[in-house]
Amino acid sequence: MLSIEAATAYIDANVVSNEDWNEADAAKQQRLLNVAERTLSDKYESLTIPSDAVYEFAAFLAIAFNDTNKMQQQGVAGFSVTGVGSFTFKENNVKSAIGQPLEELLPDSVKRLISKANGNVRLAGRVVGWLV
């Protein structure tokens, strides 16, 4: 059973960039878990999805949809907070998550966890072919 407590323990121990997950309130953490689980279950409906993969994807989504990245994805070029700092975004610095299917945001680490949980099944990657 997935839980915020188990997700936090996993993320704190195994995910390098865990700040966005830890700074999210419980309601956002639950939404991130729900979306991560639903996205993985929909994409890999015939496979077993381990909790670790859901937790790792939830942490990744926390980064992709943190307040700063959301502003850049919405077209903000820069902003400043008096006495704190000034932030300017490079154009195309972050892949926009807005309007993009969430399954396209899956990091390789999540795919490896799912593959390993299913007997090292090969998960479909990018298709290489000829353009006519």
Q: What can you see in these coordinates?
A:
This protein is mainly α and about 130 residues long. It has 6 helices and 2 strands, in the order αααααββα. It has helices at about 5-15, 20-25, 25-45, 50-65, 65-75, 110-115; strands spanning about 80, 85-90. It has a two-stranded antiparallel sheet with strand order 1-2. Strand 1 and strand 2 (about 85-90) form a beta hairpin. Helix 1 (about 5-15) packs across helix 4 (about 50-65). The longest helix is centred in the first third of the chain and has 18 residues, at about 25-45. The mean pLDDT is about 80.
The mean pLDDT is: 82
The count of strands amounts to 2
How many H/I helical runs? 6
The whole-angstrom Rg is: 17 Å
Low-confidence stretches: none
Spatial strand arrangement across the major sheet: 1-2
Structural class: mainly alpha
Query: What sort of overall outline do the alpha carbons produce when their principal axes are compared?
Result: globular
Helix content: 40-55%
Alpha-carbon distance between the two ends: 48 Å
Strand content: 5-15%
Order of helices and strands: HHHHHEEH
Biggest beta sheet summary: 2 strands, antiparallel
Main traits of this protein?
6 helices; globular; two-stranded antiparallel ribbon; mainly alpha; 132 residues
Describe what is shown at a glance.
49% of the residues lie in helices and 6% in strands. The protein is mainly alpha-helical and 132 residues long.
Helix/strand layout:
Layout: H1 4-14, H2 19-23, H3 26-43, H4 51-64, H5 67-73, E1 78-81, E2 85-88, H6 108-117
Antiparallel strand pairs: 1-2
Helix pairs in contact: 1-4, 3-4, 4-6
